[in-house]
User: Fold these one by one.
Assistant:
Number 1:
Amino acid sequence: MNASAASIAHDAHGHHGPVLQYQPGLPLSRGKLIMWLFLSTEIMFFAALLGSYVVLRFGAAVWPKPHHVHLSEPIGAFNTFVLICSSVTVVLALEAARANKRSLAKIWMLTTLILGGLFLGIKAYEYSAKFSHGIYPAAPRGLIYERPDLYYGSAVRARLSDPAIIEQMKELDARPESELTAEEVTGRRRLAQVREMAMAVDQQAFDLAVIADQVMPLPNEAAGGHGHGGGLNETFSWLQLPIVIPGGNMWASTYFLLTGFHAVHVIVGLIVFSILLLYELGPKHAGMIENAGLYWHFVDLVWIFLFPLLYLF
Amino acid sequence: MSTPNPNETTASHGPVTEPGPLAESRAGGGSTSAEHPAGHGDESHGGLGLYLAVFCALCFLTTMSFFTYSSYWPWRDEPQVGWAFMMAVSCTKALLVVLFFMHVLWEANWKYVLTIPAAMMAIFLAIMLIPDVGLRNRMVAQERALHMARPADLLLLERAANAAEGESHHAGDHDH
C-alpha cells in the first residue's frame, strides 16, 4: 500500500520525489492525543485515591468531623474559587493565543500562574495549621491517639516526665500571676489538675477522657462553637501533649495523601505554565497551551471532588 | 459533524490523502501540536460570553455545596441528604468543566473511546475496594479492636467536655 501511495504521489508531483502522507487515525494532533491518554491514566490514579478515601471513611467506626481536625470550610471554598478562576484564565489565554493576541495571552497565562501560586500558598497555610496542632500523617511528630485509653494515659505521663517539660513547668509555676495572661492563669491551674490526674494511681477511664479534653478539646458540633476555649496545647505551645481524635490517624493519612498528590499536580502545572511563558503565545503555540490547559482543568476537576469530600462530608 | 471523513478521501484518491487534514504536514515535525486538522473545527467555540456563563455557574454551584455547611441548610440531622446533594453538585461542576473548558462538547467521537473505559475502570476500582477495605470492621482481631476508636469514645469525650464546661461556668460564677 505504501509503495502504491508513493508512486501515486510521485506521479502527482514528478520532480519532488515520493512524498508519503498518512491519514491520522484520530482527528486530533499527536500532542493532544497523548495528553488525553495521560489524562485517562490520571483519572484512574485519582479514582484509586478518592475511592480508597471514600471506602475507608465510610468503613470506619468513627471518622472525625471537619472541626475536630481544624479544617476551615470557608478557606476550602475560597481555594475552590481560586482554582475555578485559574481554569477560566487558562481558557482565555488559549482563546487569545488563537486570535494572535500575544500579549493578552501572556497576561492571562501569568494570571493563571499567580492563581495557582495563591492556591498553593493557602494550602501551605492550612498544612501549617494542622502541623501546629500536632496533626501529622505519622509518628514521631504526629500526636494523635485514637481513644483515651491506658496507652494514651501512659503517653501523657511520659511527656510530662520529660526533663525539658519538667523544667518548663517549674518555670511556669515560679512566675507570679501578674506576669501571666488570664488564659495562662487558668491554663496553669488546669495543667496542675492534668498532672495530678495523669500521675494518679486510681485512674478511671473517665479521667483519661477529661485529660484528653483538657489537652485539646474537640469542638462541639451541636453548639456550633469551639467548645470551651483552646486546650492546654494551644495555651502552652511548648507542651505538645498527646491528643485524642477518634479516627484521626486514618483521617490524617488520607487527607495528606490526597491533598499532597493534588498539590504535586498543581506544582507540575505551574512549572509547565512558567515554561510556556518563555514562548511567544501566538497561534503557533496554541496547541501547547491547549494541552497544558487540559492538564490544568483536570487538576481543577480533582479538586472539585476533593473539596466536598474532605471539607463538607 | 464537522470531522473529516477519511473514507471519502480514501475512496476518491486511493491510499494517499489530501494534505489538508494532516496535522503533521504543517506542524513541521517536533512541535507537539502546532495546528489542528482543518475542518476539525475546535478553534474558538466558546467565546468570552459562554466561558463567563460557565464560570458563573461554577461559582454558583460551589456556593450551593458550601450552603450545606451553613446553618440554613434544612437537613442538618440527616447528613446523607447533604452528601447526595454535594455529589450531584460536584458531578455537575465536573461535567461543565469537561464539556466547556476542556472542549469535549465539540470533540469528535474519539472522546468516548478514551473517557468511558477510564471512567468504568475507575468505578470498578472503587467498588472492588469495598469487601476488603470498606467492610474491614465487620471482623476485627481482638488486638486491633483494643486500639480502635469507637463511637463510645466520642461519647466519653463529649461527657468529659460537658463536665469541664460546667466546671468552668461554675468557676466563672465563683470569680464574680
Note: The first helix of chain A runs from residue 2 to 12.
Number 2:
Amino acid sequence: MIDEESDLRERFARLRAEERRGVPRFELEPRKRGRPVVWRVIAVTAALILVVVMTITIRPHPAKFSDSDRAAVRSVTEWHPPTDFLLRTPGSEMLTTTPRIPDLKGIPQ
Amino acid sequence: MVNRADLEQQLEELHPASFAWAHGLCGRDADEAQEVLQETYLKIFEGKARFDGRSTLKTWLFAVIRRTAAARRRLRWLRDLRFVFHDVSRVADDHESAERRVIHSERTSALLRALNRLARRQREVIELVFYHELTIEEAAAVVGVSVGTARVHYHRAKQRLLAELKEQP
C-alpha cells in the first residue's frame, strides 16, 4: 500500500513538473465589459417583447356575436312547443294573477 | 489589512500553484484556466472576495478559484444554449495557447485518464492532496466540505485511481 501511494505521489510530482512549463506569466488585465452588457440588454429586451406578445396572445378576448347569432338566440327563446296548450288548465290564470277587489262604490254602507 | 502591492506580490508567488489548480478545475484547458485566474484576481482587487485570515492565503485563494471556475462552468452551459453571449476577455490568442499546451508523458497521461474518470469532488480532493500537497483539512476548506467528507472522498479517489492505473498498460 505504501509502495502504491509513493507511486501515486511520484506520478503526481511528474505531472506537476510537466505542467509547470505551461504556466503563463502573472499579469492583471482589466475586465472587458463592453460586449457582454450589450448582449445582456438585447437578451433582456427580447425576453420582455416575448412576454408582451405571449400575454396578448394568450389573454381571453370578449366573445363577439354576429347578427345571425343574435337572431338564432332570439328564435330559440321565443319558441313554444305546439302542445303547450295542454298545460293550460281551466282557471290557471288565477294562479298567476292577483284577484281585483270589487269596486265598493254604490254599495250601501 | 494587506495593501495592494503586498497582495499582488503574494498572488504572484502563488501564481504557478494557482494556475495549476485552475488548470485541473478546467479539465486541463489552459486558456480557460487563465481566464478563471484573471477573473479571480480581479474579484480580489475589486474587493468582491476578501481574505479574512481564517485560513492560509493559499487555501482561501484556491477556494475563490474553485468558486470562480464553477461560476464560469455554469455560464458556459448557458452560453452553449445561446442564452448568454459572454466573450469574457479571452486573453490568449491561438499562438499563445499552442505555446502553453503541455505535452504529457505516457505515464502522466495514464494518470490524467484515470483522474478524468473520478467524480468531480473526488478529483478535486485528490489533486489538492497529491498535486498541491495540501493536508486533507486544507483540502476540505478549499472544497467547502467537512473534514470527514473530504477524508471519504480522498480514500475513495485513491482506491479508484490505483485500480484504474493497474488496469492501464
Note: The radius of gyration of chain B is 17 Å.
